[in-house]
Design a protein that fits this description.
Uridine Diphospho-n-acetylenolpyruvylglucosamine Reductase, domain 3; Enolase-like, domain 1; globular; binds flavin-adenine dinucleotide
Length: 289
């Protein structure tokens, strides 16, 4: 299958890309790593009038420290982010999650911003952004806005992005040095999208949980924040934490679906198990007698 005909531009600056988006009047699609868009074009499931290729915009690449956080350019390759020392130091759970995104080959081309913008409910990067409380920077020729990641996703592959808007940065807030990271996913094969997964971070001070951020992947139409579990963990001393009870609260916030990969009941059951195990292991808690 070949894509339907389209015009193509490859701007070298953000402003150039924004004016191309504005001129396209809603008929443009942005090309980043193409790991999802190219198959969609070939299958003619996406038929834009014009493709705006953002791979030549240097301003959109790289990892930098911003005040109180780490900024990731959307056209940062997943493989580069996986090997990035600043991310390993400041956003370690993102690096752990990245190692589960696709394959070596797809990560060499796929971008962090492409995954965040696509909004696949079973993807690692959207859930990581939601769990850590990241902010998505969005620009158009009309201006710039910052959207909290947990307000960015509206449904499967649906986000708050307007047709003339571009994601220009993802900002991950700092978590205390030595914070606890939580990540586990179950997929049919390594590199497949997760059937169920969880990602998060906890800060401990004086042996109690002082900050928590946890989200699910593959457990609903969007990345799902485990709000009840986060609230239940706050202020708890480690010996007072019952991982299974917290897992029950976490699953209660989900809305998993049935599909040809797995039933919603399977997802809940596996979700409960991986949440309990991951929390127990991360906090060094003993198995309940
Ligand atoms: C075999 C295979 C396995 C995979 N497994 C996984 C997996 O396990 N987990 C996972 O998360 N992903 C997986 N993927 C998806 C892939 O890794 C990328 O994450 C995904 O394709 C998005 O990144 P991209 O840079 O390729 O974006 P593209 O395909 O170029 O774009 C994706 C969408 O995002 C839009 N977009 C891109 N950048 C921006 C921006 N800056 N602003 C606004 N909109 C933008 C595009 O217009 C398009 O609609 C897999 C892909 C393949 C081919």
């Amino acid at each position: 299958m070949k894509p339907a005909p389209f015009d193509y531009v490859a701007p070298t600056s953000i402003d150039e890309a924004l004016s191309a988006l504005a001129d396209a009047g809603g008929g443009a699609t942005i090309l980043a790593g193409g790991q999802t868009l190219m198959p969609l074009l070939n299958l003619r499931m996406s038929q834009p009038f014009i493709i705006i290729d953002i791979n030549r915009i240097a301003e959109l690449k790289g990892v930098t420290r911003a005040s109180g956080g780490t900024r990731v350019g959307p056209v940062t390759r997943q493989a580069d982010a996986l090997a990035d020392a600043t991310l390993a130091q400041h956003v370690p759970v993102m690096v752990e999650a990245l190692s589960h995104v696709g394959h070596y080959q797809t990560r060499n081309r796929g971008t962090v911003g492409g995954s965040v913008s696509l909004g696949e409910p079973a993807a690692e990067m959207p859930a990581t952004a939601v769990a850590l409380g990241a902010t998505i920077e969005i620009r158009s020729s009309k201006g710039t806005r910052q959207v909290p990641a947990d307000e960015f996703y509206l449904g499967p592959y649906m986000t708050v992005l307007e047709p003339d808007e571009l994601v220009t940065g993802i900002i991950y807030p700092d978590w205390a040095d030595g914070h606890v990271t939580l990540f586990r996913e179950v997929a049919q094969r390594p590199g497949d999208f997760a059937l169920v997964g969880m990602v998060g971070a906890l800060e401990l001070s004086g042996g109690t949980v002082s900050r928590s951020g946890i989200a699910w992947l593959g457990m609903g139409p969007t990345p799902i924040k485990a709000r009840q579990a986060e609230a239940a963990l706050l202020g708890k001393s480690l010996d007072a934490i019952d991982p299974l009870a917290i897992a029950e609260l976490a699953v209660a916030d989900t809305a998993p679906f049935d599909d040809h990969h797995a039933s919603s009941e399977y997802r809940r059951t596996v979700g409960r198990r991986i949440f309990t195990r991951t929390l127990r292991e991360a906090l060094g808690l003993k198995e309940a007698a």
